[in-house]
Amino acid sequence: MRTNNGNRSYGFSDNRNYSNRGYNAHDNFSEGGGELSVSTYNAAIGGILAYGLLINVIMVTQFSQYFVNMNPIVLLILYFVLALVGIFISRASDNPWISFLGYNMVVVPLGMVLSVCLNGVASDLIIHALGITATVVVVMIILSVLMPRVFLSMGRILGIVLLIVIIAEVACLIFKGTLPAFWDILVALLFSLYIGYDWARAQEEYRSYDNAVDACVSLYLDIVNLFLRILSISSRRDD
Length: 239
Prior knowledge:
- By secondary structure, the chain is mainly α.
- The chain has one domain (36-238).
- Helix content is 73%, strand content 2%.
- The protein has a two-stranded antiparallel ribbon with strand order 1-2.
- A hairpin with a 3-residue loop joins strand 1 and strand 2 (7-8).
- The two termini are 25 Å apart.
- 39% of the residues are buried.
- Residues 1-32 have low confidence and may be disordered.
């Protein structure tokens, strides 16, 4: 579930190209704000991520049945179209508000998909998967802070592995094949490493609100993908 340019989602290719941006007045919410401090920049990333995940929680808990009753083909079309447009808007814009709009266009349709995926799943399994996901996210961010160059050097390898994962899963979907039991573990490991990689990449960027939003698009998709894989692993073990 991922695209490059910092974007991840099922079926999206990973071909990212980060660029360091010089200061632009639109990058900050107040003119002349200058570059953000490290703490403010990271707090913005954390807050935007928390906002996106909270939106998903509300959608799953309050509107799940509505999305479950939708035509699955219509749901998938809405998901892919809105998410792709949102990713493009976020990456193309230097205005944090417009990038934030793009971020929401990724969060909302993915929340629709999550509502369907989590429908009927035992709450204890979901809570268990959330706890493991949160722990992995914290650990990977800490490791990324301690060893940023190690994670930054992984970019090309991670992209190649992700492409292989996408091709394998699409092929299984088309030909109705099955993947080995350890597949979810490997993919969970992949997205765990991507969290460290994307955090390290975010720290290399010019510290603006716009770049904070852009970083959140990638990190949000990393986290959701990791959660779904951990949930799949937990469900198999429970069965």
